């Protein structure tokens, strides 16, 4: 057995091997050590190998999904090795024969389909990077989700590779081994960490890709798929080859690869995605992200589509308007919207159930999910029938109308109301669907009643009231009559032919009949036969489902579109959002804009309203480029919130959502850049300031006139004059070279003088009020410039010791009077006594103790002026060490 294990493990060396032994999956050697640590299960040992104990651990087969979930979440890959024959068959080959085993699938983060392992509202993408040399498109990305059948491909460039990967947010990225070891790409792969999985270069061979794809899809030619570049074929081939490797003999119902036009979506670089917390917060949590805040979907497919739209906002005003039309329709039809959402709640995840059925991992509940989904789709069609629908919703309803009604009826007719999880449990076929199955179930469950009925029939036929049908382990079922009545069963040739003598007793005789023998065989095999019939019914239904996979996928996508449109309308209704105007201009005019996440958090946690603010970056009269707002103001005044909310409003508008504002007019943004917040990258030797400069460089090198740039506190990580100089030059560059719409927040108040030089630069500030020494933050944006940042007031609110706050006020006062540079020594000389005690060396602390004693001994009320002067000289002498 261990020889078999080692051979199978050698063929799957990059995976943890789940080796089936009876009711457990066992792991051995290093796999056992890793799994026991990761899963928190007991590490034991079994047998020896090369004189050493073999580590072992195991998990029950029935609970394997729970353990797989933990391992996959930690980035491990698992090879599932099953017993391919009954152990009884192995014994027939000899007592030393080993049960045949083989790997039936590889479970990896990008290829899971189990319901327990998947987030219903999150796609589970596997991505492949293809690269060819000398081609017109050097690099491409292909990504697919085997749990839903989605398959897309897009070209990319080295400078936007990471951004394109993060836009899709795959669970696993496969690359050819030579590409993985390319020094130019290693920093990127290091950033992605365990997500990256190197594979053999043969997987990515663009020359053999057409043959691989034709074989996978069962077609003779790829002419109907469209034309793909060599790099695209390389990426597509890599993805398909990896699916074939991991799924072994099963084939998921993947759609044909569709080209994803990278210019059709808003480019958002990785740093911006992280800073804006689109799908998860900086700490990695979904709670507090924009997606979690705006998600009102009621289906898993709808949640996935909403996430996809948020990650890839559109840049075509017509396509955006089409989505907004759908939201407007449901916003105006509140009763219809509520009815639709109730129907959608009853619609299970059709695409994921379909995938499990196609991969032979599905069960009766997956067929039930498809039946319920088809029923919900029919009800949705009836609900929307006769309505004047906008274009997007009209297409969705057409896709629902062509769903196969015969399949829905067949599933409803065949499946029971209560369905087991596993098909091997049986009991999922509805009574009355198959007459033979009903008979087998009757024999299995009601054998006594059937035998009793036969006994009654024989009594009436023969007239022998004492006739009994009995059973024992030797004869099985038999007919028993008293010796006196036996002649009735033997008095004619016809009776002798029918009643076959089995045994003679002292006072009775035993017989059987062909009918009774047949019934006995049926009863003995009824349970196995019933399950066999049910499994055959399952296979027929599964084949019928797989044959309709393409139209079922389209129907599932249509339900997702309806769910997202109705959900965004619900969001707009409950949060008082407005429909934005998105066009080809360079406008960016937001009236009474709000931060969607902060607004809901304030209301939920504090019951306070959010202070709305306007933002107008539209070109002024006579200008051909958008404006730059230079935002100054106090800490805690709301600058970062204001910056982020305008970026989020742009994203929401272009994804096709209403936005948190009184009104919004936005000229399409093609690239969004945001530099908000501080971070470092110590693993790559980058300080916080270095990361800031790298991200700022990316913005200045890539932003164009249609870009929206959000910059916060550029230059704060270095010396004051260095930082001011960098921030100053960056604003000038944005104004003169990039000519983009921008929000630039800073504490360098000197920069407000730039408004006199740069025609499109506008000074705005966060308003505050001072009352009885306290600072009140109004969180309002107004024209003008701040003259200070109120940092010391914020420090006091944060709980700094009062002595520190007071001393900071004194130092600030001296600095504001121009006491900088060489005169800074004067500030040090002016340190109060408590600071001297804290900062000087130990001998000086002894001096300060003597000073404190001398001061304590003085009584000013009893001293003459001469004595006071002498005491002062004496104290100064102590301070100077005299």
UniProtKB/TrEMBL annotation:
Say yes or no: keyword rRNA-binding present.
no
Source domain of life is Bacteria
Which terms are listed as keywords in the entry?
ATP-binding, DNA damage, DNA repair, DNA-binding, Nucleotide-binding
Q: Got a GO cellular component term for this one?
A: cytosol
Q: What Gene3D superfamilies does its record include?
A: 1.10.1420.10, 6.10.140.430, DNA repair protein MutS, domain I (3.40.1170.10), MutS, connector domain (3.30.420.110), P-loop containing nucleotide triphosphate hydrolases (3.40.50.300)
Q: Which residues bind ATP?
A: 633-640
- SMART domains according to UniProt: MUTSac, MUTSd
GO molecular function annotations of the record? ATP binding; ATP-dependent DNA damage sensor activity; damaged DNA binding; mismatched DNA binding
All residue ranges annotated as the DNA mismatch repair proteins mutS family domain in the record? 707-723
Keyword ATP-binding (UniProt): yes
Q: Name one GO biological process term.
A: mismatch repair
User: What biological function has been recorded for the protein in this entry?
Assistant: This protein is involved in the repair of mismatches in DNA. It is possible that it carries out the mismatch recognition step. This protein has a weak ATPase activity.
Stored NCBIfam families: mutS1, PRK05399.1
**What family is this?**
Belongs to the DNA mismatch repair MutS family.
Q: What's this protein's name?
A: DNA mismatch repair protein MutS
Name the source organism. Answer: Chelativorans petroleitrophicus
């Amino acid at each position: 057995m261990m020889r078999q294990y080692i051979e199978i493990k050698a063929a799957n060396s990059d995976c943890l091997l789940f080796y089936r032994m009876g009711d457990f999956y066992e792991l051995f050697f290093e796999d056992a050590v890793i799994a026991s640590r990761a899963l928190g299960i007991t590490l034991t040992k079994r047998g020896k190998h090369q004189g050493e104990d073999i580590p072992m651990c195991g998990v029950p087969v029935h609970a394997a999904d729970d353990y797989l979930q933990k391992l996959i979440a930690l980035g491990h890959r698992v090879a599932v090795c099953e017993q391919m024959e009954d152990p009884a068959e192995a014994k027939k080959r000899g007592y030393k024969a080993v049960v045949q085993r083989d790997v039936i699938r590889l479970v990896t983060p990008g290829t899971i389909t189990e319901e327990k392992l998947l987030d219903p509202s999150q796609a589970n993408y596997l991505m492949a990077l293809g690269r060819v040399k000398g081609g017109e498109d050097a690099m491409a990305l292909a990504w697919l989700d085997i749990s839903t059948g989605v398959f897309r491909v897009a070209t990319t460039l080295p400078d936007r590779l990471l951004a394109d990967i993060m836009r899709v947010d795959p669970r696993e990225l496969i690359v050819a081994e030579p590409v993985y070891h390319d020094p130019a790409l290693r920093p990127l792969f290091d950033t992605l960490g365990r997500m990256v999985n190197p594979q053999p270069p043969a997987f990515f061979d663009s020359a053999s890709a057409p043959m691989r794809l034709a074989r996978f899809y069962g077609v003779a030619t790829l002419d109907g798929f469209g034309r793909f570049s060599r790099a695209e074929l390389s990426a597509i081939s890599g993805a398909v080859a990896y699916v074939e490797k991991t799924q072994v003999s099963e084939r998921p119902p993947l759609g044909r690869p569709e080209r994803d036009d990278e210019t059709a979506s808003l480019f958002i670089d990785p740093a911006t995605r992280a800073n804006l917390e689109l799908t998860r917060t900086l700490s990695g949590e979904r709670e507090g992200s924009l997606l979690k805040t705006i998600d009102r979907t009621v289906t898993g497919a709808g949640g996935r589509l909403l996430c996809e739209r948020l990650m890839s906002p559109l840049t075509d005003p017509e396509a955006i308007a089409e989505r907004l039309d759908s939201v407007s329709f449901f916003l105006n039809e509140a009763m219809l919207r509520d009815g639709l959402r109730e129907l959608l709640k009853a619609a299970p995840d059709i695409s994921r159930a379909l995938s499990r059925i196609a991969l032979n991992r599905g069960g009766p509940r997956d067929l039930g999910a498809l039946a319920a989904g088809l029923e919900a789709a029919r009800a949705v069609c009836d609900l929307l029938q006769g309505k004047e629908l906008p274009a997007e919703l009209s297409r969705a309803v057409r896709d629902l109308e062509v769903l196969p009604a015969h399949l829905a009826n067949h599933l409803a007719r065949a499946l029971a109301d209560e369905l087991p999880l596993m098909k091997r449990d049986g009991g999922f076929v509805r009574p009355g669907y198959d007459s033979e199955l009903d008979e087998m179930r009757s024999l299995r469950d009601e054998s006594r009643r059937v035998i009793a009925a036969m006994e009654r029939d024989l009594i009436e036929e023969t007239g022998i009231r004492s006739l009994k049908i009995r059973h024992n382990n030797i004869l099985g079922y038999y007919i028993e009559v008293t010796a006196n009545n036996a002649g009735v069963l033997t008095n004619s040739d016809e009776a002798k032919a029918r009643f076959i003598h089995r045994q003679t007793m002292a006072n009775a005789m035993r017989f059987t009949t062909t009918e009774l023998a047949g019934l006995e065989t049926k009863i003995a095999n009824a349970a196995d036969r019933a399950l066999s019939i049910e499994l055959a019914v399952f296979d027929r239904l599964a084949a019928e489902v797989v044959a309709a996979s393409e139209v079922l996928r389209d129907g599932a996508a249509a339900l997702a579109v309806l769910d997202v449109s109705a959900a965004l309308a619900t969001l707009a209704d409950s949060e008082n959002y407005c429909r934005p105007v998105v066009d080809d201009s360079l406008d960016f005019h937001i009236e009474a804009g709000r931060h969607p996440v902060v607004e809901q958090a304030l209301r939920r946690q504090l019951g306070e309203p959010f202070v709305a603010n306007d933002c107008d970056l539209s070109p002024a009269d006579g200008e051909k480029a958008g404006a730059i707002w230079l935002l100054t103001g106090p800490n805690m005044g709301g600058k970062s919130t204001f910056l982020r909310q305008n970026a989020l409003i742009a994203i929401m508008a272009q994804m096709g959502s209403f936005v948190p504002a009184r009104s919004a007019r936005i000229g399409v943004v093609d690239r969004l850049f945001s530099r908000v917040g501080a971070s470092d990258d110590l693993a790559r030797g980058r300080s916080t300031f270095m990361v800031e400069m790298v991200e700022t460089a990316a913005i200045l090198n890539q932003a164009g006139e249609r870009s929206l740039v959000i910059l916060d506190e550029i230059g704060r990580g270095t010396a004051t004059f260095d930082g001011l100089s960098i921030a100053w030059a960056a604003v000038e560059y944005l104004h003169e070279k990039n000519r983009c719409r921008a929000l630039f927040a800073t504490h360098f108040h000197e920069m407000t003088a730039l408004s006199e030089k740069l025609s499109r630069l506008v000074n705005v500030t966060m308003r505050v009020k001072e009352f009885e020494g306290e600072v009140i933050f109004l969180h309002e944006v107004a024209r003008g410039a701040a003259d200070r940042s109120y940092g010391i007031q914020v420090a006091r609110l944060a709980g700094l010791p009062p002595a520190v706050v007071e001393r900071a006020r004194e130092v600030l006062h001296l600095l504001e009077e121009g006491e900088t540079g060489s005169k800074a020594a004067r500030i040090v000389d002016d340190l109060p006594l408590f600071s001297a005690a804290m900062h000087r060396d130990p001998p000086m602390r002894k001096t300060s103790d003597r000073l404190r004693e001398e001061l304590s001994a003085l009584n000013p009320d009893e001293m003459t002026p001469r004595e006071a002067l002498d005491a002062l000289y004496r104290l100064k002498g102590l301070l100077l060490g005299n």
